[in-house]
Amino acid sequence: MHFEPARLEDWLRDYYFDAAIDISSSGVEPYTFDELRPLIGIDLDDLAGMSFRDSRSAGADRLRYLVAERYGVSDPSRVIVANGSTEAQLLVLMATLSAGDEIVVIDPAYHSMVETVRAKGCRLVRWRLKPENGFHPDLDKLEELVCARTRMIIVNFPHNPTGVTVTKEEQRRLIDIASRNDCLLFWDGAFEDLIFQGSPLPAVATLYHKGMSFGSMSKSFGLPGLRVGWGVLPSSAFVKAAVAVRDYTTLALSPLVEFVAERVLEHSDSIVAPRLLLAATNRSYVLNWIAEHANLASCSEFGGGVIAFPRLLGVDDTTRFCHRLMSERRVLLVPGECFGMPGHVRLGFGGHSDQLHRGLDELADALCTDGAQR
Predict the structure, then answer these.
(1) Which of 62, 69, 182, 347 is the most interior residue, by most CB within 10 Å?
(2) Cα dist. 113→124, 186, 214 in Å?
(3) pLDDT for 83-112, tens place per residue?
(4) The domain 7-33+272-373: what is its CATH number?
(5) Nearest-angstrom CA–CA distance, 155 and 286
(6) Which sequence spans correspond to the domains of the chain?
(7) pLDDT value at position 371?
């Protein structure tokens, strides 16, 4: 297997740690341990008797139970907990797919959902979200692409990098398309809690017998450094197959990480609610900024996650522009080229409001300066 370079990770590898102002990230502001402890009730004495022995291959029993409970699944044996949802997805894709399988994938997409499939030797059929349609998913087109040969449909809603999402009715139709063609439906729900109108979408693992739901503590929980994610799969057989792949990779999670993750899930509302409130305030600010700077940027509606995907007007080479923004102003944005969409940038608004305000001021000034130079 040969993996192509992950352009997003290449971009963030150094810039993420060197930026003074980050308006690129796709998650909410990370918690410090000092902030987290009172919210989830950890006393350091709770850790005194912990043994750093190996954990179970699919995750600690209590943690799997809590994930299953979160999704309304009665059987925790359908759950695998991993080092981030990316690992859970990698294990499942490696265990489930074979070279030659036909896979319909959303496009643009986070690299790990596509590149693993391509490297496995599968035939990719891309379901393109088009900027001229505001990146709104065209389910009529999906229906044309999915057929009896389709082994799996891979989607991510709310979507990274655009922030678009689907309604419950659209989700139902998407499930119906998968069901009529008897294919697996792989649903990355990393941003599932970050919804600004209505309630989060139900998990496809509870709605469809071939549905796979993936989640993470990296985005809405503000705990990317904890490296905890999961998959809720159609049956325990899928978990066993994924564990067989894991035997050659990470083997298990750390018991310390599992302990913290269990407490977080037990107090999830206390963790998510403050960050969602901040994100909603910041989203309003971004919407106003875009309206006030219509001569500099345009943007489709973004209803989920903490990211927008504006087009920078008059900027064709967004990689060059973002390089200059970082080197001259130490402001971090992700160029659309990382997702195969030049002219756009991924703008994150999940962090501190003052950082967002300063970052957007710098962005507007840089765009004006760039336009004057042209």
Answers:
(1) 347
(2) 11, 10, 11
(3) 999 999 999 999 999 999 999 999 999 998
(4) 3.90.1150.10
(5) 26
(6) 7-33+272-373, 42-269
(7) 59
Handedness of CA 250, 255, 256, 260 (dihedral sign): positive
Residue 225 CA, distance from chain mean position: 15
Determine the pLDDT at residue 373: 52
Return the pLDDT at 62. Answer: 97
Q: Which of 1, 138, 101, 106 is nearest to 340 (CA)?
A: 106
Determine which helix (DSSP H) or strand (DSSP E) holds 186, and give its type and residue range: strand 184-188
Three-class secondary structure of residue 231 per DSSP:
strand
* Angle, CA 308 vertex, CA 204 and CA 141 arms, to 5°: 50
Are 74 and 269 spatial neighbours (Cβ–Cβ below 8 Å)?
no
Q: What pLDDT digit, counting tens, does each position of 234-271 carry?
A: 999 999 999 999 999 999 999 999 999 999 999 999 99
CATH no. for 42-269: 3.40.640.10
